[in-house]
């Protein structure tokens, strides 16, 4: 086919069925296109609740169903929980001995809120969170993309304090609502309606201006407590104002490129494997089209049952949360390990897809320019220590993979807290030391281009990373 009459750029789009969809990036037309000056640097965090299985070394289940590998930095052996990642061995790093100091005596049902913030939210009493690492990067890079970040979860919304259904928190520490319906996410990213979208934006802006003016006029008539409440409300309104201003800047720019013919956008968690794969695919498409460079997905919330519990049906179990409470039952460690394996398998599928996709700029593949992490704020049986974390990619960002990185002292075999079958010991004293996870976040931000030596009050990065 002759290409001499084609002139395409990455914002070219086609119309049909009442929506506008951008054309995908075609290598054939790269010479005539307007490529990015450099490959985008991306960040994605996947959170899974309830921790992982850590049987004692003396337990017959230890060899196959302990989450953490066995061995050293390079010669580690993956158990059956993570061996699905063996084909990606040189693309991943596994971390142990990292946790947030302020959460180490918080029950695992209440600790997810601080996973990406490191804030001392505590297990009870007054609650105040801080900005999450994804939003630090989103604030830094967000103007370069239509969407500053993509915030997703299986449950959707924000949840409640210490029962968050989102991993993302803004500059004021307020939870950012997560989207959980694939069609809603797809439409937000890739569908526009021309004049309708412009008119809706204008109405929203007008209503917001009126709201701000009206509420500010109340300030002098309110008590000190109510003035604080009003200020918090206005801060929230300001977030909306910022989003509307950004939307105005992008209203005349065609939506980015996607090929979504293979997606079932009506899928729900009751079809768990397909649902999870669809959520990952939406992150992939958002990155591929450069709609955003920041994404979070909370696979499920802590603190009990919910729609996320259905995800365990992918591997034959009625509920995911109960698996952590049933490790004493026959085959209990294997059952929990099988579910953790499913989580790792789908993360690996996503990572492989990034690896298989060349960058439009020619700078390696998408994985080389993406720091992808999957983890939990609990290890064994809701213990808020020794977070099980995997990262993948980031070769062009300076990350060296194919390693099992152990931090702290006294837990070289990852047996601290192992074998727990009751959550009664979550406040017990620990004989091991761990490093603050926030130090890893400093490494990540620096390699994403953010000039900082601190995150959440913790200075410096980890020397091994």
What does the secondary structure layout of this molecule look like, with pairings?
Layout: E1 13-16, E2 19-22, E3 42-47, H1 62-65, E4 92-96, E5 98-99, H2 133-141, E6 150-153, E7 159-160, E8 163-164, H3 182-190, H4 195-216, H5 224-250, H6 272-288, E9 294-298, H7 321-324, H8 332-355, E10 370-375, E11 389-393, E12 403-406, E13 435-436, H9 437-447, E14 454-455, E15 458-459
Parallel strand pairs: 3-9, 3-10, 4-12, 5-13, 6-9
Antiparallel strand pairs: 1-2, 4-11, 7-8, 10-11, 14-15
Describe this structure in words.
- By secondary structure, this protein is α/β, with parallel strands linked by helices.
- It folds into two domains: 36-191 and 264-459, Alkaline Phosphatase, subunit A; 192-254.
- Helices cover 27% and strands 12% of the residues.
- The chain has nine helices and 15 strands.
- The protein has helices at 62-65, 133-141, 182-190, 195-216, 224-250, 272-288, 321-324, 332-355, 437-447, and strands spanning 13-16, 19-22, 42-47, 92-96, 98-99, 150-153, 159-160, 163-164, 294-298, 370-375, 389-393, 403-406, 435-436, 454-455, 458-459.
- The chain has a seven-stranded mixed beta sheet, sandwiched between helices.
- Strand 1 (13-16) and strand 2 (19-22) form a beta hairpin.
- Helix 3 packs parallel to helix 6 and helix 6 packs parallel to helix 8 (332-355).
- The longest helix has 27 residues, at 224-250.
- It is globular.
In short:
This protein is an alpha/beta fold. Helix content is 27%, strand content 12%.
Brief descriptors of the model:
single chain; 465 residues; Alkaline Phosphatase, subunit A; seven-stranded mixed sheet; two-stranded antiparallel ribbon; 9 helices; 27% helix; DUF1552 domain-containing protein
């Amino acid at each position: 086919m002759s290409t001499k009459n084609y002139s395409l750029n990455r914002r070219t789009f086609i119309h049909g069925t009442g929506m506008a969809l951008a054309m995908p990036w075609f290598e054939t037309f790269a010479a005539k296109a307007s490529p990015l000056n450099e490959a985008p640097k991306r960040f994605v965090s996947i959170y899974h609740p309830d921790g992982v299985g850590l049987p004692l070394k003396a337990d017959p289940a230890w060899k196959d169903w302990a989450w953490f590998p066995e061995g050293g930095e390079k010669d580690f052996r993956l158990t059956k929980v993570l061996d699905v990642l063996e084909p990606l061995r040189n693309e991943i790093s596994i971390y142990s001995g990292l946790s947030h100091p302020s959460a180490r005596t918080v029950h695992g049902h209440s600790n997810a809120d601080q996973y990406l913030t490191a804030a001392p939210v505590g297990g009870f009493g007054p609650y105040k969170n801080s900005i999450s690492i994804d939003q630090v990067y989103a604030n830094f890079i967000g103007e370069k993309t239509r969407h500053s970040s993509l915030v997703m979860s299986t449950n959707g919304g924000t949840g409640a304090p210490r029962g968050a259904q989102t991993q993302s928190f803004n500059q004021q520490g307020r939870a950012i609502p997560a989207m959980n319906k694939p069609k809603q996410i797809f439409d937000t990213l890739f569908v526009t309606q021309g004049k309708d979208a412009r008119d809706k934006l204008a109405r929203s802006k007008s209503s917001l201006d009126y709201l701000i003016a009206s509420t500010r006029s109340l300030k002098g008539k309110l008590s000190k407590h109510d003035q604080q409440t009003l200020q918090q409300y206005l801060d929230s309104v300001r977030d909306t104002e910022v989003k509307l201003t950004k939307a105005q800047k992008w209203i005349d720019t065609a939506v980015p490129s996607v090929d979504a013919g293979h997606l079932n956008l009506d899928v729900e968690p009751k079809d768990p494997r397909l649902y999870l794969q669809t959520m990952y695919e939406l992150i992939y498409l958002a990155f591929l089209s450069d709609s955003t460079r920041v994404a979070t997905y909370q696979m499920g919330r802590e603190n009990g049952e919910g729609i996320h519990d259905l995800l365990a049906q992918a591997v034959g179990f009625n509920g995911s949360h109960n698996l952590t409470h049933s490790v004493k039952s026959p085959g209990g460690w294997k059952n929990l390990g099988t579910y953790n394996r499913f989580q790792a398998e789908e993360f690996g599928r996503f990572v492989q897809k990034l690896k298989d996709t060349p960058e439009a700029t020619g700078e390696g593949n998408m994985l080389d320019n993406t720091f992808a992490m999957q983890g939990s704020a609990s290890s064994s049986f809701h213990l808020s220590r020794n977070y099980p974390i995997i990262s993948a990619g980031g070769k062009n960002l300076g990350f060296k993979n194919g390693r099992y990185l152990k931090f702290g002292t006294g837990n070289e075999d990852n047996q601290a807290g192992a074998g727990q079958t009751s959550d009664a010991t979550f406040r017990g004293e620990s004989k091991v030391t761990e490093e603050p996870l926030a130090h890893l976040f400093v490494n990540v931000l620096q390699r994403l281009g953010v000039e900082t030596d601190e995150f959440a009050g913790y200075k410096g990065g980890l020397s091994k990373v």
